[in-house]
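Q: Second attempt. The first request was missing the SMILES, so the protein and adenosine-5'-diphosphate are both included now.
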Amino acid sequence: MAIEVHNVTKRFGSFTALDDVSVTVKDGALMALLGPSGSGKSTLLRIIAGLETPDAGNVSIAGQDLTAAPARTRGVGFVFQHYAPFKHMTVYDNVAFGLTVRRASKNEVNERVGELLSLVRLDGLAKRYPSQLSGGQLQRMALARALAPQPKVLLLDEPFGALDVQVRGELREWLRRLHEEIHVTTIFVTHDQEEAMDVAGQIVVMNGGRIEQTGTPRELYEQPVNEFVMSFIGPVNRLGDALLRPHDIQILPGGDFASGAVEALVRRVVHLGFEVRVELTLPDGRDIWAQVTRETTAELELEEGQILSARLPTPRLFA
Amino acid sequence: MSPGPVSQALERHSPRRRGLPAGGRSATALGNGLLAGYLSVLVLLPVSALLASAASGGSAAFWQSVSGPEAVAALKLTLVASAIVVVVNALFGTLIAWVLVRDEFPGKRVVNALIDLPFALPTVVAGVVLLALYGKGGPAGIDITFTRAAVGLALLFVTLPFVVRSVQPVLIELDRSMEEAAGSLGAGSWTVFRRIVLPNLTPAILSGAALSFARALGEFGSVVLISGNLPFKTEVGSVYIFNQVENDNVAAAASVSVVLLACALVVLGAMTWLSRRGSAHGG
Ligand SMILES: Nc1ncnc2c1ncn2[C@@H]1O[C@H](COP(=O)(O)OP(=O)(O)O)[C@@H](O)[C@H]1O
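A: Got both inputs this time. The predicted holo structure:
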């Protein structure tokens, strides 16, 4: 169900964590809240869940204003950053909690828990305790627990933050597929732009308690509205006030000055698998780097100390 | 469904959370030896001497000492009073710890420091304080001296810190997001307390309660002044033992001591077992 946040402001003492923030998440969407640490993402998520009260503004879910409603009546599934497992309960009892609280019958609980445990692939582990699970298993248990009472919306706070890199990619893929399967409106918080772009259909970029831009991954990458978004969402070169994407810089053989290319000295060539990072010095002494393919590198026989031509794209200037 | 590659990768990366670090074992051998020696001198020897003394007259004499009407009355009073004290402590100790950890109020630090007062005060001094407060003509306006209520009050006073101080750190460390999670799953505050907070505090409450029970069983200084030590009415076990020693009846004193010791050990053991069971899975 749709989530609407209107003009929410939240202060902690004299510090403004959220400054007049408005967000709309469409029914069934998978949205990322992306921003550097301290930008207010978790605070916004907690306000939607009712775990924090806004100083101004309102929150509604499925068209119903829930600003004053306590967390327990909101129908929000929340997955905490460190999963908040109930340490003294088995995996089964953790997942069943939201059902037993509602006095569901034993059979009902049994059926639903079994269903969820197989959805998150923890079938054999129902009798284990949280201390006997790995980080990724805890995360999936927390997800099953949040989904058990059939929440209207699902909120995940840095769902992959505490996992190691190798596992993260697989779980990302898995979360996206899970969302396709169950279609519950989902917001997740992340500070990793690649993660946001990989998983979410819609991204809200936050900075300093404000929303900088909202859009699809592609919109944000191709039409960033300001310098912050452009540099947060992908790699950039900075030439004074102008910003260029490294892969927009075209490298040509030395002496080829077609359409405004300039001379450039190759300082370093770094092979990063498929991509090659070429660090260049321009005639005016400024350093930039370009991202090229292995083919280009081979064709031009790129090596340190070489002089060639570089065609810079029209730089973006943000007022 | 079989565990997919994700689960397998996760298994590989799961931190070892059970078992001792292997390297620590040999290094602790010396430590264990020292500990055993130290404890022998401090605990084992005196306890053996006590047992020997209690057994010196044979089992008939032992039985006679502990089944005499005055001894039985003293032991009964001690056990019943201690049991009541434990229950009150478990309840109010937890409540005080909760207020001290979760609430903000002016003077909180002073109150927090005051909790330790019964530990810091010599127990006889505690007895004098209680006598001055609740004795004849005291500011409280009530006189409870020479009553069983006085025994209970004295025991409550000296055992106050145990549960508070064992619950407090656990409550501070308790992950608040567990409570938030339970709340967002639909639980009201009482359900959150009963199903989330309390089970996590239980081991600490039990160990604090066990300690206060053991302490109450043997308490002497604070009780001796205010209770009046009336046989069959306000005479507790420890005072009875003291009187037997005064009357050169050392074997009888030792016999009753052994009974108290056994009670303390049983309760400590039971509570340890219970709290182990309760926290076996607490990560
Ligand atoms: N309960 C709180 N009390 C005081 N300051 C807080 C509290 N919660 C968050 N903050 C502050 O608000 C800012 C935003 O926090 P948060 O929403 O957690 O950011 P993010 O999730 O983007 O890292 C941070 O500077 C943080 O220190």
